[in-house]
Amino acid sequence: MSGKDWAEKDYYKILGVNKNATDKEIREAFRKIARQNHPDQHPGDAAAEKRFKEASEANSVLGDAKKRKEYDDMRRFAHMGGGGFRFQRGGAEDIFAGAQGQDLGDLFGGLFNRGGATRASGGGARPRPARRGADVESEITLDFADAVNGTTVPIRSISNNACSVCHGTGAKSGTMPTVCTSCQGSGMRVTTSASGFPETATCTDCLGRGLIVNDPCDECKGSGRARSSRTIQVRIPAGVDDGQRIRIRGKGGPGENGGPNGDLFVVAHVRPHEIFGRDGANLTITAPITFPEAVLGAEIEVPTLDGTGVRLRIPAGTPSGRRFRARGKGATRADGTRADLMVTVEVTVPPTLSADARAALEQYAELANEPDPRADLNQH
């Protein structure tokens, strides 16, 4: 039976005993179930027969000290995340098989780094330090409206994960790494400096892994790592600016020796809009008005980013360049409120005039008798 089959079955639960049960308690539990569900006592009862077979299987493992130890070790390792270690009845069949992407280099630190001593320290072997995974950076380009309102985008991230061929061991299939004799599997070496003080440094023989790969994996060349890509859905908050970095915790490179994953940093680039701009959380737009509208006043329709539009009152005598505020028509702020739309009016000048329009404008200029607007310039 494979270790996967064992991992999927709780033999203690089948027999109704706890994990610290004695051999006697296991035997008594099995005999009780066997008496109650023996096929001779329940002919044709498929449920009783299944229960009897499960109990017999559980007893064959838990009732044998060696098999029970293998079973307990396998389940402990599987619960660490491997989920696919396989064992023969007499020992490890293929400790690397089916690790489902787990870095088994981390696991070996626990298997081999028991007892022993570093060469220089003379004490017990030290566990290899946990290492945080590398941060990963990715770039996206957003439409203006998505940057203002927020959106969810797929992002392809590339990082160094456990090699899918050797499952992170770095060793060719059918072989296994050996414990580094220089550091006794700790990945660290303690030496004495010239001043007589102990110094701890990464082992130069195993480069901190605690293991030596004698026959390296063809795919990863013994590193235990391989570049891989994945696509994740990332929520872009409303109001993101061009060039802003967004941090996604725990979505970077995988950690080593039980260390946490790194972070994913997403750099947002925002495409410019044809008519709208940004001033912080406020949106901006330039609205042209005619000369009569500027002089006489008017009510104009101004477009908004959401397409609803807003009506804006232009007072009489409005000069070109004056700014108006349409409240609540801007981008969403961090607190969920909406900023404003800032409208700058620009008085347009007609390139041509009809004869009647020219005559009327000349008559206006004569009747208005306006003072010279450049008079102040002549005084300097």
From TrEMBL:
It is found in: Cytoplasm. Pfam families: DnaJ, DnaJ_C, DnaJ_CXXCXGXG. One of its GO terms (cellular component) is cytoplasm. Residues 34-56 have a biased composition (Basic and acidic residues). CXXCXGXG motif repeats lie at residues 163-170, 180-187, 203-210, 217-224. Zn(2+) 2 binds at C180, C183, C203, C206. Participates actively in the response to hyperosmotic and heat shock by preventing the aggregation of stress-denatured proteins and by disaggregating proteins, also in an autonomous, DnaK-independent fashion. Unfolded proteins bind initially to DnaJ; upon interaction with the DnaJ-bound protein, DnaK hydrolyzes its bound ATP, resulting in the formation of a stable complex. GrpE releases ADP from DnaK; ATP binding to DnaK triggers the release of the substrate protein, thus completing the reaction cycle. This is Chaperone protein DnaJ. It comes from Propioniferax innocua. The gene is dnaJ.
